[in-house]
Amino acid sequence: MRLRPVAALVVLAGIPAMPACLKENPEGYTCDMAHVGEVLSGTWRLHADGERTGCKNRRLEGDLELDLSLPLDVTAMAVATSGDPTGEEPEHEADAFVERIRRADFELNADDMPDELDLGGSTVGSCATIVLTERLPGGDRLSYTLDGYIISSSKVVGTLIGEGPETCRVHGSFELSIQ
Amino acid sequence: MGKSKRAQHLGVIVMTCMTLMSWSRPGDAQAPETWALTAHSGDPADTVLANTVRDLLASDLGSRPNTRATLLSAACEDATCTRAAAQAVGGATVALHVSLHRLGQKLIVAASAVDVATGDSRGSQRLTANRVEELDVVTRRLASALVSGTSAEDTAELGNITSNEAEAPKRRSGRFGFGLHLIGIAPIRGYADQQIGGGVDIGGWFETYDFVIEPRIGIRTDLTREREAFFHVPLELSAAYLFTRDDVSPLLGIGTGLGYAHEEIYVEHEVGEVLVTRTHDRISDSLLTATLFARGGVLVLRTYDVSLLITIDYALTFGEFQERSVEQAVRLSFGVVLGGS
User: Fold this and answer.
1) Residue at A58 is within a domain
2) What pLDDT, on the 0 to 100 scale, is given for residue A27?
3) Mutate to test the interface with A, among B266, B267, B273, B277 (most CBs of A within 10 A)
4) ipTM of the complex
5) CB pair distance less than 8 Å for A60 and B269
């Protein structure tokens, strides 16, 4: 009985930290095991639409389109799986071993990226979180976080939030194509 | 004991009050003054009238506390003569000479008082009446001024104001007219991303020898085919100095105003070299503005009822625009001013 409030507190505290992909999004995508992070390896092309607001310079605000000016070669590397993101553990250890390989989490890296660009990200099941940051010549920077779902072997869709330049905030949706 | 002390205090208070009262009314303690009067008129035909004024003044003086008045028969033309006459008669402390002069329809009454003993001036006063019937008011005011030592103008009260004083003071007249102006606007900052503009102003025109004051209202808009557009309705007031009184008069001035402004601009922006973001937006402002401007120009055909006005302004327009707080422009104006003085 005394543990129940503590458990409730732990659950409530954990909700904000829960990956967005574990919740169902408006488009109906869910964080399942249909496509996992390994499909992110390849050449990326990114397009996003949204809105930029809150800028010191009013002329920077407005409807926004984002594109990668050059394709990015990205490698998705499997990492140790932990926890139980998508379902119950199989009963037998052999099945569990196979399942862990199948649903492996991945980390994203890119080779031969432009110096001014940083890429980071990870996947849990079919959910992907990607962080792209570009340093601008004047010391300012653009930072975008793409939170989405791997919906096919070559496509990731989701929402985008970002910062920069200066005080600007960006929000919108993106589509990432992988070849 | 208590009662006697209270009585003592009461006595001190009463004595103090009496002392203060005696200080505040020194005239009460002074010996009566006797004023000896003579009269003189600028026109011999007004001698009787001058004597009437003297008699009225003597009556008014005599009715005041501690003042006596006596009439002298000497025909004096100044206060020195009056003093000599008063010394000859004896008993008078102040010699008062009253003179009456006509200036057109006006009757000017002047009174000069000197101390009989020392010859020192006791003051001179003058008042003007527009008609004979007002002379009793004039003498009453003069008597009050002479005794109190104040100016005759300061003795005006309801009931003793002369018609001459009641007249409204005349003012210098200027040239009132109307102006119609064509405006050209060359923006330096703002004005929907510096769109060339123009407009029409109408306004008043008040011109003196050296200054002109000009209120205006106008409609000004962009004259380009761009998507960007502005529309201003200013209400302005300017004042300028006119350097000459000739037909070609340069002018220099300043002005201020309030107005309504509507502006639309379309912005596009690209940021980033790898993560390329392009934004586009329409920024629309409708707001109240305040304007300050400096004006230089020339008024041509100034001496005619119809004049031409050519001016160039440097104007600052302040407002809570979304992406700026001030606009700047050079304005050129060609106008016509109609109306004589």
Assistant:
1) yes
2) 64
3) B277
4) 0.75
5) yes
Residue of A44, A46, A61 best to disrupt the B interface, most CBs of B under 10 A: A61
Residue A84's Cβ-count burial label (10 Å; 0-12, 13-18, 19+) is exposed
- Domain range for A167: 20-178
Judge whether residue B26 has pLDDT over 80. no
pTM above 0.90, yes or no: no
Q: Which of the residues B263, B264, B269, B279 would you substitute to probe the A interface, choosing the one with the greatest number of A C-beta atoms within 10 Å?
A: B279
pLDDT at residue A11 greater than cutoff 60: no
Read off the pLDDT of each residue in B29-37 and give the average, rounded to a whole number: 83
- Asked whether the beta carbons of residue A60 and residue B271 sit closer than 8 angstroms, the reply is yes
- Above pLDDT 90, what percent of chain A? 34
CA distance A65 to A52: 10
Q: Please judge whether A64 and B279 are an interchain contact, meaning their C-beta atoms are less than 8 angstroms apart.
A: yes
Q: Characterize the bridge pairing of strands A155-163 and B275-300.
A: unpaired
Write out pLDDT tens, residues B156-178.
888 888 888 888 888 888 899 99
Is the pLDDT assigned to residue A151 strictly greater than 90?
no
Min Cα distance A151 → chain B (Å) is: 23
Number of domains in chain A: 1
Domains of chain B: 31-164 (3.40.50.10070), 175-338 (2.40.160.20)
Domain CATH for A120:
2.40.160
Contacts A59 to B, Cβ<8 Å: 267, 269, 281, 283, 323
Task: Say if A12 falls within a structural domain.
Answer: no
Q: Write the residue in B276, B281, B323 that is nearest to A67 by C-beta.
A: B276
Mean pLDDT is lowest, of A89-103, B243-257, B264-278, B316-330, for A89-103
pLDDT band at A22 (very low <50, low <70, confident <90, very high): very low
Say if A85 falls within a structural domain. yes
A7, part of any domain: no
A&B contacts, CB < 8 Å: 65
